[in-house]
Each structure stands twice: as C-alpha cells, then as structure tokens.
From TrEMBL:
Pfam families: HTH_1, LysR_substrate. InterPro entries: HTH-type_LysR_regulators (IPR050950), LysR_HTH_N (IPR000847), LysR_subst-bd (IPR005119), WH-like_DNA-bd_sf (IPR036388), WH_DNA-bd_sf (IPR036390). Keywords: DNA-binding, Transcription, Transcription regulation. Coiled coil: none annotated. GO terms for molecular function: DNA binding; DNA-binding transcription factor activity. GO terms for cellular component: cytosol. Belongs to the LysR transcriptional regulatory family. Residues 1-58 form the HTH lysR-type domain. PANTHER family: HTH-TYPE TRANSCRIPTIONAL REGULATOR YBHD, NITROGEN ASSIMILATION TRANSCRIPTIONAL ACTIVATOR-RELATED. This is LysR family transcriptional regulator. It comes from Paenibacillus thalictri. SUPFAM superfamilies: Periplasmic binding protein-like II, Winged helix' DNA-binding domain.
Length: 300
C-alpha cells in the first residue's frame, strides 16, 4: 500500500470520477485505474461501486476512507513541519470568528500566538455563524471560531470550551453577593437580551418557556459592549457566558452569579474547519489552541 494509492483513492472520492481524479493529480487515467486496482487487490475488497454516471464508495471503501484521510493529513503535517523549520513561521493567517468572541476572548489568544510566531500576520473576519459556514465552504478561509454547529457533512467541529450560563449583574446590584441566585428571583429584574431573531434570544426563550416562567425584556441589542454598559449601570440583568465578561469581571465592573437549578444548556464554543487538509498556518493555530486554550475557562 503506497501513499500514491491512498492519494488517488481520496481524489476519486472527492471528485466523483476517475477522469476528474486524473486531471486533479495530473496523471493519465490508466494510472489512476492501475493504482486503485492494486490497492483493492492488496486489501482484498472493492472500494468503489462503478456506475455509468457516478462512482460511490462501497461499505468497505467508506470504512477505509477515514484512515486514508488521516494518513494523507499526517504526511502533509510532516511536510509543513519541515518547511516551517526550514524557513520559519511566516505568512498570513486568516480566520473567521463571531463578533462577541472576537471582541472579548480572541485578543489574548492572538496575543499569545503572535508572541510565539512574531513573523505571522493575522486577518480576522467577524460574522454570524451561518455566514461563517458559507465563507468556509467558499474557501474564503479554512478555520473559524463559532458558538453554534451546523449539520453540513463537509465541516468538522472541535469543542474549544464549555461553560454554564450565569447571571451577569453590576457589582452594586443586590444579587452581586449571592452565592447562587434563584431563576424566578432573577427574572423579577428587567432582562437585557440580544434581538428576538438571534439564536441567543431563541435559546433563552426556549429555556425559560420550558420552566414556565415569565420575564420582561427591557433592552434588545446585538452590541455586547452596549449590553455590558447597561448591566454595569443597573439597567437590567443579562444571562451569558462569564468568559465573555472576563475583563470587566477582573476590573470589578461586573459579577457573574451562578444560577440555582440552571435551566440553560451549557454555552459552547467550537473550532470549525473545512474537511480538506489545512495549511501549515491553520495547523499552527490549532496546535496553539490545543496547547493553551482547550477548555479555556477550566469548566467542563
């Protein structure tokens, strides 16, 4: 079993035909067929169902696919590692991110990344989750950080960190010194929320409706900095992830109070990437996140 055989197998899977695979690999179609025949002979199983219009993987081919992908990825990682050693880590890293994460959490990640790789420049695109999916599929960039996953089979997600939703109040709020706060008591306060059409608002309403509790929304805005300003001035309370408030909490401007019988699903942040092999700079970022920022909050 050779690397060329596995590379050809993956190229056929991704392109859907022997002819397109030969064009992609810049080799004659008979060479493509010969490599696959030799691979199938060695494995003792057919890997493709060959139809008139399309080619599909057999069950054995589907079982073999993830191992072939991992093998190719490992070779690419090795080549990239050699190149990085040879010429140093240089170039432009382009990533996508949701607006709130980019404003509140990403700066310290980028700062530590650039302190380690000072010759890399970074470009960050901030969009909502559905737009990040579209841009990655269009190959505008390969890696993004998002709070929500999709069912797209071509995208992979890795949980970056997970934490509970807490009640965010000002330091002068009566609930600021509570060890835990009752949900119904918290909802007697006016609530600050993202706009009704956002995923956050829909999840908030769904969780509270399941508890059969009523609440009054006083302010709606998609600007997190404005929300923080409103909370700090006791204009209302906010249910959110404390990591997005870390700077304000450290400065003593806001307090994150745990909820008794917390009804909310854990707030999760994911690394999203396209299934094609990642380039060397994307791999460097992922490696940096694994080393320093997996389970960023230390919760979960």
């Amino acid at each position: 079993m050779t690397l060329e055989q596995m590379e050809t197998f993956v190229a056929i899977y991704r392109s859907g035909s022997f002819q397109k695979a030969s064009e992609k690999l810049y080799i004659p179609q008979p060479t493509v067929s010969h490599r696959i025949n030799q691979l199938e002979k060695e494995l003792g199983k057919s890997l493709f169902m060959r139809g008139k219009r399309e080619i599909k993987l057999t069950p054995e081919g589907e079982a073999f696919l993830p191992f072939a992908l991992k093998a190719l990825a490992a070779v690419i990682d090795g080549r990239d590692a050699i190149e990085l050693v040879k010429k140093g880590a240089i170039g432009k890293l382009t990533i996508g991110c949701n607006n709130s994460y980019a404003a509140c959490v990403l700066p310290r990640i980028i700062a530590s990344f650039l302190s380690r790789y000072p010759d890399i420049s970074v470009q960050v695109h901030t969009y909502a989750a559905n737009e990040l999916v579209r841009l990655i599929k269009n190959k505008e960039f390969q890696v993004a950080i998002t709070r929500y996953t999709s069912n797209d089979p071509h995208l992979s997600y890795h949980l970056l960190h997970s934490e509970p939703t807490m009640l965010i109040v000002s330091t002068s709020h009566p609930m600021a010194k509570a060890g835990k706060v009752n949900l119904e008591e918290a909802l007697r306060e006016p609530v600050i929320s993202y706009p009704r059409e956002t995923q956050y608002s829909k999840e908030l309403e769904a969780s509270l409706n399941q508890q059969n509790v009523k609440f009054t929304t006083r302010f709606e805005t998609n600007n997190l900095q404005l929300i923080k300003w409103l909370v700090a001035r006791n204009a209302g309370v906010f249910f959110y992830s404390p990591s997005y408030m870390q700077q304000e909490i450290e400065r003593g401007e806001l307090i994150a109070v745990p909820l008794q019988d917390d009804p909310f699903p854990r707030s999760q942040t994911y690394l999203m990437y396209y299934e094609d092999p990642l380039n060397s700079l994307d791999q460097l970022l992922i490696r940096h996140l694994k080393e320093h920022y997996w389970n960023l909050t230390g919760i979960g």
